Amino acid sequence: MPEMPADRPRVVLADDHRLVAEGLQRLLEDECELVACVASGNALLEAVRQYEPDLVVTDLSMPDRNGLSVMRELRAAGVQVPFVFLTMHAEPTLAEQALRAGASAYVLKSSAGEELLRAIHVVRGGRTYITPTLGARVIAAPGRGQKQELTDKQMQVLQLVSAGLRSKQIAAELGVSVRTVESHKYAIMQALDVHSTLELVRKADEYGLTPGLRATRPVP
């Protein structure tokens, strides 16, 4: 897992489903200090103002107002506390919207558990996290104002590049030509708006697209 500050982050948790909230509390209590657990958007807004937490873990859809609306109001007021959205909504456009609005992480409830803890570690390390299966489908290239999609084959190439394999090794692994690998790499770099393999690996890690993988040696 990425390094995280040694102190336990003070967290406000928001989810209107009681059983889900109880499960999340048990999951988080070993690594976080839960200062409040609320069940609505308005309650979340007040809890953040009252407790000034280090991190917010919230559902997207809640009674009275959604988590995205709460985050936007806090951002407008100058409150920059990181928001980790934990949601059942797997629509890429919603993830993109949340990240563009200032969210630090977007995690699907279907893949929660250890992944939520990983997302918190990544966010506490100053980076952004997206559930890999979602991030693989849509990536917002900074400054481009449009969606960029990666194919399954491009995701395979990206993962192997991040694992430290050279283009020739990737070609052998996937049963394609080196030229095809280079073509995929170029398309991925365009999608991620990067200009070198090192930047590519860093951006993939930033978006949580290659969990657990790290480059082990320079690649072309």
UniProtKB/TrEMBL annotation:
Signal peptide range: none
Annotated SMART domains: HTH_LUXR, REC
Domain Response regulatory: 10-124
Superkingdom of this protein's organism: Bacteria
InterPro entries reported in the protein's UniProt record: CheY-like_superfamily, NreC/VraR/RcsB-like_REC, Sig_transdc_resp-reg_C-effctor, Sig_transdc_resp-reg_receiver, Tscrpt_reg_LuxR_C, WalR-like
Pfam families associated with the record: GerE, Response_reg
Modified-residue entries (4-aspartylphosphate), positions: D59
Residues annotated as domain HTH luxR-type: 143-208
Gene3D superfamilies named among the record's database cross-references: 3.40.50.2300
Keywords, in A-Z order: DNA-binding, Phosphoprotein, Transcription, Transcription regulation
Family annotation (PANTHER family): NITRATE_NITRITE RESPONSE REGULATOR PROTEIN NARP, TWO-COMPONENT RESPONSE REGULATOR
Record protein name field: Response regulator transcription factor
